[in-house]
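Work Package 3 (structural annotation) set out to generate three-dimensional models for the target panel prioritized at the project kickoff. During this period the team completed the workflow that converts sequence records into discrete structure tokens, so that structures can be stored uniformly alongside our sequence database. As a representative example, we reproduce one entry of 160 residues exactly as it appears in the project archive.
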Amino acid sequence: MKKRIGVVSDSHGDRGRLEFALMKMEAGGRLDALIHCGDMASDADFIGGNILQVVAVRGNCDGWMAEAPVDMAMNIGGVHFFVTHGHKYGVKSDTDTLASVAAGQGAQICCFGHTHIPYCEYRYGVLMLNSGACYATGNCAVIETDGRGGFDVQMMTNFD
């Protein structure tokens, strides 16, 4: 079954920009799922509303008592995801370590944050996707799956 999946990260409590990002993401149709890659993972509940599936992981600014897991592997719309904030994988230096871990998890797409910089590139056969910081910009991304393991990605940065 086809799915539309929104991706945000590093919202840092800027709920106005989250609402802006949600409007951008839903301009092409209703979202079936939302992935929040940490640093105020609790914002995912705020923006989640009527979205059927909301996935959030804990970032370095979420605190160790946050309920969200640090990493999560899942299948949405026939696509295998690995989701993390990225801080424990050194993503500010390079994405090779995280890409290797995601590939080991069988991921087709690895969603992460932490750097605040939009990034979309294949590493070790995994699409490494960082939507960029949502706070102050409204950066986000939408993944559309075809229900058979294929997907398209649209980056929606503050320059779009």
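The domain at 3-156 is CATH 3.60.21.10 (Purple Acid Phosphatase; chain A, domain 2).
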